[in-house]
Amino acid sequence: MSLDAQALSERLTRLHLTAIRDQLDSLLDEAVRRELNLRDAVALLCERELDRRNERRITMATKIAHFPYLRDLDGFDFAAQPSLDKKQVRELAACRWVANGDALLLLGPPGVGKTHLAIGLGLAAIGEGYSVLFVTAPALAASLAKAHAESRLEERLGFFTKPKLLIVDELGYLPFEPNAAHLFFQLVSRRYERGSLLITSNRSVGEWGTVFGDSVVATAILDRLLHHSQVITIRGDSYRLREKRRSGLIKSAPLAQGEPA
Ligand code: ADP
Ligand code: MG
Q1: Would you report the helix, strand and coil content of the chain in percent, each value rounded to 5?
Q2: Of 110, 151, 175, 182, which residue is least crowded by CB atoms under 10 Å?
Q3: Counting atoms of ligand 1 from 1, which one is nearest the CA of 234?
Q4: What average pLDDT does the segment 112-125 reach?
């Protein structure tokens, strides 16, 4: 049986083997050039098809995650952030904590790279096959409060419980309304031991009573969050200001000791 190119292309389309279809000539050339036997040639075709599917899955999952921008861990300058253990971050990027449904708290002052790391770890989780959703704490609180007012809370809690990893950025920049704190508690309870939460905050855990406007709710939230968790506290100067200082835009702030001018 001999198929003309058009008929073969149609069959590959019907089988949804679009990577093989699109690269067929070059893949066959490659198989000949590498003198592959038939079995290895089929393996090569399968590998390229699977590569394309994985790329598509990552693209789609990255869109669904709603990151504010994309930053990966390779772009993180660990030398500029000595309070951070590079090895610990690399281990987190392997995502065992996500598989276990553990929590991760990234704490520290503004500009030290919390959001960058959260996005980098979110992308790493997508790479490992997990679903991820990124939301800021004020947006999450507003969304839950709105759903509550419209009697759609169950549906909304379900939406935020579904992703295997939920990243809640910037907890503590704005205090929660008392009602929002209760709604956040419900979400944390739902996700507890099911899915991971990554929370970034400029407030230490001891200040969360003020953040939530209710120390009883804050304790209940922390009780669940800290049960299976890692807490990373980043210290040091804002990376943004450091860059500005280096370029001479900010002259008043003294350079940290040992920092090259
Ligand atoms: P935070 O969330 O802690 O306020 P960000 O993650 O928003 O800080 O960091 C502020 C900016 O500085 C971002 O553009 C981020 O990519 C960059 N940044 C911060 N720390 C580092 C670092 N150690 N290496 C590279 N870029 C960094
Ligand atoms: Mg941030």
Answers
A1: 60, 10, 30
A2: 151
A3: 3
A4: 97
| pLDDT at residue 242 greater than cutoff 90 | no
Decide: 259 and 133 in contact? Cβ < 8 Å. no
pTM: 0.88
> Residue 149 to residues 84, 143, 191: CA-CA distances in angstroms?
41, 10, 22
Q: Averaged over 57-80, what is the pLDDT?
A: 96
User: Cβ(118)–Cβ(134) under 8 Å?
Assistant: yes
What value does the mean pLDDT take over residues 156-180? 93
> Is-contact 201 172, C-beta < 8 A?
yes
Architecture of domain 73-245: 3-Layer(aba) Sandwich (3.40)
Q: Which DSSP string do the residues of 37-53 spell out, in sequence order?
A: -HHHHHHHHHHHHHHHH
Q: What pLDDT score does 250 carry?
A: 62
Mutation test residue for ligand 1: of 69, 81, 232, 239, the one with most atoms within 8 Å of CB: 239
CA of 211 to the centre of ligand 2 (A): 16
Q: Give the integer Cα–Cα distance in Å for 187 and 157.
A: 6
CB 234, CB 83: distance < 8 Å = yes
Q: Residues lining ligand 1, judged by CB closer than 6 Å? A: 71, 76-77, 80-81, 108, 110-116, 239-240
Q: Which two tokens stand for residue 158?
A: 């379900």
Report the atom number in ligand 1 closest to the C-alpha of 80: 23
For atom 21 of ligand 1, which residue has the closest CA? 113
**Nearest Cα to Cα of residue 119 among 173, 74, 157:** 74
